[in-house]
Amino acid sequence: MEKALGDADLVIESMAEDPKQKIEFYQKAASLLPEKTVLVTNSSTLLPSTFASYTGRPEKYLSLHFANQIWRANTAEIMNHAGTDPKYYDEVVEFAKQIRMIPLCLHKEQPGYLLNTMLVPLLNSGLYLWANDIADPETIDLTWRVGTGASMGPFQFCDVIGITTVYNVVAINPEANKPGTVHYLIKQKLQPMIDAGHLGRATGEGFYKYN
């Protein structure tokens, strides 16, 4: 880790949506990062203000969130927190352009940024229908694709995102520990998939099987 961070101009943290693990990483990295280093998080749901104080460089810390399958959807959402120096925000915007991403600039913190603020309600609706045994994933996806002309349904999105990430986002909600709630039901139905290693497209099987 010391070698990896030793002369970095920019470090991108891209860990699972687990606040405890992220904090542990930031605290360990704080003493290893050079003064010049800008630190960004690729978190898809967690706010940078949650972690800024643990980084040792809150003014050089912000979010740079890449879309899934960036070779197809080359977007980079850039979001600051109240303590981010505008100079470093602008540097990250320029970095996104240099690596041929389309920078999508947020003016204030928003859980889920732009894309996931719009996408997560779709996924939650699909998971709700599945967790309550209203319809199976294939039918739910078919309904969305045919009804809207979209290329993928909510469970196809889940497989691309990864079942572990979907589970972690659900588990963060306090309702996930209350039996009978929708988040609890979803968590209970996702757990066997994780236990079986069916984590989505990356592992060859999630809600669907992939060759």
Q: What's the quaternary structure here?
A: single chain
Gross morphology is globular
- Please tally the helical runs, counting DSSP H or I stretches of 4 or more residues: 8
The stretches of 5 or more residues where confidence is low (pLDDT under 50) are none
The secondary structure category is alpha/beta
Spatial separation of the terminal alpha carbons: 35 Å
**Topology order in helix (H) and strand (E) letters:** HEHEEEHEHHHHH
Major pleated sheet: 5 strands, mixed
Rounded radius of gyration (Å)? 18 Å
Strand content of the residues, in percent?
5-15%
Average pLDDT metric: 95
For the largest sheet, list the strands in their spatial order. 1-2-3-4-5
Binned, the helix content reads 40-55%
Task: Please characterize this protein's 3D structure.
The chain has 211 residues and is an alpha/beta fold. The chain starts with a helix and ends in a 16-residue tail after the last helix. α4 (115-131) crosses α6 and α4 (115-131) packs across α8. Strands 1-2-3-4-5 form a five-stranded mixed beta sheet, covered by helices on one side. Helices cover 43% and strands 11% of the residues. A hairpin with an 8-residue loop joins β3 (61-66) and β4 (75-79). The chain is globular. It has helices spanning 2-5, 19-30, 86-98, 115-131, 137-148, 154-161, 163-172, 182-195; strands at 10-13, 38-41, 61-66, 75-79, 102-105. The relative contact order is 0.10. The protein is built from eight helices and five strands.
